[in-house]
Amino acid sequence: MKIILTGSLGHISKPTASQLVKLGHEVTVISHSAKRAAEIEALGATPAIGSITDEAFLTATFQGADAVYLMITAASAGDIFEAGRRQAQIYAAAVKAAGVKQVVNLSSVGANLGPEVGALHIYQIIEGVLTTELPDVNLTFIRPTGMFYNLFGSLTSIRQDHAIYTNNSLTKASSWVAPADIAPVIVKALTAPAAGNTVQYVASDEKTYPEVAQLLGAAIGMPDLKAVQLSDDEMQQRLSAVNPNAQFVEQFVKMTAYERDQDFYADYRQHQPVLGPTKLADFAATFAQVYQQQA
After folding, report:
1. Beta bridge partners of residue 5, listed in sequence order
2. By C-alpha distance, which of 219, 177, 222, 227 is closest to 200?
């Protein structure tokens, strides 16, 4: 099969590309950076250097593809929801123009919810645009839960305060996922697609924040590492000090507050995935390596 991947050589796209190449597929990886070309070629894939906001470039790259994998990157400025809508419209136009019939989209847990879920509402918007604009395309929406690597955002507070700060619940378990467990799901969706529109959740482990703190603390030799619940205002102030996108910070806090106060995982439970093999205890070893490297 001829398969096109967006996402350059990120956490998910790189292992996906590698697995597809090993299976004998013709893989093209889209990247905005020419510096990535050699590394893409080293995987056995073909680099396509250009911007995912360039509809003409995408259309040309998608020509003749049996399947396309689509994802978005975080908006550093501006309206995150409008940015997501625009990118979905560009993707849809390119898919239609190129005649692609199989699309796998990296979505997220929470995509079944509306504006009440904060930052994750962007995925409902994207799923809606693709579904509306591509009625004749087989669409698979992959909905991973919270990424293990998001915990790297707490490196500074762990080192300085021996604390992981959150406005989320300390008693409810959150669902977490490793990119290594997402890639095989994407590979299967690309190479053996289901007809029509389908949704698949992906998760690796389910842990509360105190359990996360215990695992990470043990791995880095910090037995007193604790999870500390902040108010929404306190969390927003902490995040605003390091992230210039005020809208994203506000919507991120709104997202975690919704998870804390509402039944955030209701749809996830209805489509309960088999948990992947990579556990938070496994990630803790990787976290410890990064923590020591930054010491």
Report:
1. 29, 69
2. 177
